[in-house]
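Objective 1.3, modelling of assemblies. Example input:
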Amino acid sequence: MLLFLLRRVLLVVPVLFGLLLLTFVLTRVVPSDPAAALAGDQATPQQIAELRATYGFDRPLPEQFLHYLVQIAHGDLGSSYFTRRPVIEDLIERLPATLELTFFALLLSVGLGIPLGVVAALHHNRWLDQVLRVFSVGGIAIASFWLALMLQLVFAMELDLLPLRGRISITGDAPPHLTGSYLIDALVFWRPDILRDALEHIALPAATLAFGSLATIVRFSRSGVLETLQKDFVTFETAIGYPRRVIIAKYVLRNSLVSTVTQIGLLFGGLIAGAVVVEAVFDWPGIGGYAAGAVFSADFQPLLGVTLLIGAVYAGVNIVVDLIHAWIDPRVAETM
Amino acid sequence: MNLIWLKFARDRSALTGLVIVALVALIALLAYQIAPYPEDAFSSDPMRRLRPPGAEHLLGTDSLGRDILSRVVLGTRIALGIALSVVTAAMAIGVPLGLVAGYFGGWRSEAVMRVTDVFLAVPQLILALALAQLLRPSLESAMAALILTYWPFFTRIVYAETQRLRHAMFVEALEGLGARPLRIMFLHILPNIASPIIVRATIGMGYAILTAAVLGFLGMGAPPPQPEWGLMVAESRDYLPDAWWFATFPGLAIFLVVFAFNLLGDGLRDIVDPRLRRSR
Amino acid sequence: MTAVLAIRDLSVAIRTDDGLAEVLDHATLEIARGEIVGVVGESGCGKSTLVRSVLGILPPAARVTEGSIRFDGVELTTLDARAMARDIRGRRIGFIPQDPYQAFNPVFRVGTQLLEVARWHGTGDQAADRARLIELLRQVQIPDPEGALARYPHQFSGGQRLRLRIAAAMLCRPDLIIADEPTTALDVTTQKQIIALLGALARESGTAMLFVTHDFGVVAELCDRVVVMYAGQTVECGASSVILDRPRHPYTRLLLDCHPDRAATLAGIPGSVPSVIAAPSGCRFHPRCPSASPVCSTALPPATVLGPDHEAACVLFGAGESHASA
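Predicted structure (tokens):
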């Protein structure tokens, strides 16, 4: 297992290196004047010249790339023109909010999606299955920004059940800082008032974000169960007298989770990308909203930083997913 | 061929998808004839702003007094236009690369597939945002960004399929006859792997429409006053909750078209590859 | 001797797109307590359907249309699914599958899977069940039985997987074990060892066994009696020694002539097993039978007693009278 982990981590290295190379090419090689492109529309010629000097755009490309790598290794992702702070500081401050939102959404979609998928498979081709099927194709066709507005319209504006935006009430306090996740911190320090407030605030954005991945998980767990049910060992398990409920709940479920779990790695990428839109609509103070803000103000460094950070987080999540996969299906670790 | 049609006709949801896609294509072609106020694509009329749906304006009017139905109808042209060009261009890049990588193997496949991995290492939307931003926000940059993020999907599938056929009897026979690699790849292998490419392209249409709308919503796509669906939803935000129709209908249009393409893609996949039953 | 399993005139039909397929046509066989009976026939002759009927795991499209299956006095064809799962399968009838690899769930440890049967049908004393399983694993010659339980199916060889399955089938001391061509996928040496092992275990514990195979060599080594099937019909049955020495039914004779150990020339049987969808009328073997006469296509002849413990269903053996009496 340790060897598997090591090999899996090594596989990521060339991809991350490639990502650095790609961002380098995009920012330094493609634009005719990278300094001007980096500086943005509002920059004065003086600022552009300064940038050119600090980044060494006049040096040969390989030297620039080396310099770029060194910079990133030191955590230097440039500065934002908008917040006037180093990008890395902004990112560190905002990452917990995004992780809280995406993991909460992931939890929602996995917690609901797997049972729904199993139920659909067990009702194969009956009306419940048909309904869930339409839902699972339709779920990924809804534009998240539109769903966000519709949920705001109904639950926040018309019914006034849930807050419209933000992570916590303006009048309320944030919980003492431990993990940076308000939900976890409020639980740890047992502040039920804050927990409730935070839950109310996360409900709509998490629901929006979870919708698409919920549909995908329903799809995959449904087909996973259907596929497993046709396996010889299921017939055999019946033939040697396992009760049906044990076969479904124990033996079929674990096998069908394999395809669902591999999908979760890809879904996480979708969630974190979807966070850009959802955070922008709900004013969620995470890196997604940060990226969206950078887009509005034509601020390129933050966007670059977000791209690199998300690439790294995404790679990390996929390693974890592979480990879970290997744990569920012991054959995986040996074939890799 | 007949058998394929028969199977397709039996699949009610795929058929529904095909019918909607055909209708949408027709609407896009005849947009200026169908739209009740075709001039509302660009002109505004402050006298009739924010009217709720009624006899005169079936889906209401927006903040500048433009008929929403007309703008949604005209928007199909933009949406389908973007999707078609993005998918075609992504195919033009992705398919030859996949063929070369799959056919030759060795360093060529390593090089192509590692680059593909890098493009797939970041969620598509993030990469598209960074690219669109770098290229200066415009409809063209948005399309370029979508093309650059979607081609790897074609490369991956073509690579896998080509590898599978690489040592098929007919390919080795052709090599024995001295056929040139380019000829084998494009005249003999490509037709054999057309089905998965078509399925991927159908699903890609839905992806392109949805992602283009997101870019439009974030102000990185078509500039105002274009009747682009994502942009329309973005413009509607300040008028919620009173002008609910302003936000609702463009979003519904996106949903309907993407849904139709997904249903169609799903159905096609079932027919092309019975091993992957529905909803894989 | 009382029969532990008695199948009489069992007919099973499956609905298909092309019509009703009668996969079993009045199949009949009997197994006494502690007896090992082989069921022999070519592929597609209904052996697996017979097994599935007894276990009550026919596919949803299949239905028993006629006949009875009595297991220790209990009629299984009408027994409800709950009782079948609770009292019969796993508890009183053990099963050894055709492909011991496909029969293992790849993502669970072997121990979990082997002990699952005992959890639902065992003594209720988990430690005792576990101890018995380990003892059985030792008997089937699995090295390091304790350690084996913690491993995964893919870590065992084909022969070992089958040994594991044999141990599991024995675990709840069933009255009957059904083995569905278990040795097909193995090499000849392993096959011989396992057949010997299986025979010894069954005789020692007094368990009756229904052993499905297409190999008369296995029958000769293992079985007390043998039933020969063709296209869903049972054509001949009797003590293995009798059938092997003096086969009477034309199909059995041809089948035995195909066996490399005894055939002077490898003859083969011209033609192939017919489709059961439009099965030949009467005796289903008549289109391929060298001694066929026009009568053969009219009706299935009843079994004729040819000696002590030897019956065959063919018009060659005094068809006239028995025809009228049927």
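The mean pLDDT of chain C is 85.
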